[in-house]
Amino acid sequence: MESVFAVEKLTTPLEEREDIVTVKGLNKWFGDLHVLKNVNLSVKQGEVVVVLGPSGSGKSTFIRTLNALEEFQDGKIIVDGINLTNDLRNIEEIRKETGMVFQSFNLFPHMTILKNISLAPIWVRKWKKQKAEQIALELLERVGIPEQANKYPGQLSGGQQQRVAIARALAMRPKIMLFDEPTSALDPEMVKEVLDVMKRLAESGMTMLVVTHEMGFARQVADRIVLFDHGEIIESGSPEQIFDNPQHERTKLFLAQIL
Ligand code: ADP
Ligand code: MG
């Protein structure tokens, strides 16, 4: 099937590709709480970066800052050549390029699945209703639930709703997908169907930043893993490096608790 995931799959090796996300010297405070401490991270086009770390270490704040859902006080964030400043136009541009999927699915309960997916493209991308619904249907097929198009979110299982949330984010044709613990709120038997969709999305060439505690997914799908602790990236490397040969004491401690 032709990719409606809207990204061009690059064949050049990862290390030769351009950065699509650059974060330099990022610092953020919530009042007195120094929540992100000199964070540096570059992400290549098509790269899958998994963000690990204990609860409260700043993972969500980091992901949200990339999408301008949180302000930051110091440092630089560049997403696909757009400098994330307080300029509202830049914020709007960056939000168009980044899709976000949260732990809670946040679907509009009073709208059909099809409407949930096609609403933003109609409003923001100015697509005709017919085109938007056509693409919504294709995306529902990609996430494996085309038969749910005319139902309401409350009629779907959690796993199905999260797949709709992914389809909805993809409908805006983002270049980068951000996931913040997308399977944490799901019953165990539904985790796999969501991870499978994310895995296929990764294989289609999408650039992804994924906060997750799913170590199997991290090992199998991540190009790189970064470990947050107390607002800092304490270690970063390939899944093999991180899981089989962690360098930092705190990485070992974290892995010992979770594995
Ligand atoms: P994680 O996602 O790794 O669990 P978070 O980014 O949610 O961590 O939180 C990092 C720290 O920032 C925590 O100490 C949390 O309590 C704090 N924090 C998160 N959001 C806010 C907020 N809106 N206001 C104040 N403190 C916050
Ligand atoms: Mg979090």
Write up what this structure looks like.
The model has no long low-confidence stretch (mean pLDDT about 95). The strands form two sheets. The chain has a six-stranded mixed β-sheet with strand order 6-7-8-3-9-10, with helices on both faces. It has a four-stranded antiparallel β-sheet with strand order 2-1-4-5, covered by helices on one side. It is globular. It is an alpha/beta fold. The chain has nine helices and ten strands. Strand 1 and strand 2 form a beta hairpin. The longest helix is centred in the last third of the chain and has 16 residues, at about 190-205. Adenosine-5'-diphosphate binds near residues 53, 56 and 61.
How far apart lie the N and C ends?
37 Å
How many helical stretches? 9
Q: What class would the helix/strand composition place it in?
A: alpha/beta
- Helicity, as a percent range: 25-40%
Describe the structure concisely:
InterPro entries: AAA+_ATPase, ABC_ATPase_HisP-typ, ABC_transporter-like_ATP-bd, ABC_transporter-like_CS, MetN_ABC_transporter-like, P-loop_NTPase. With 259 residues, the chain is of the alpha/beta class.
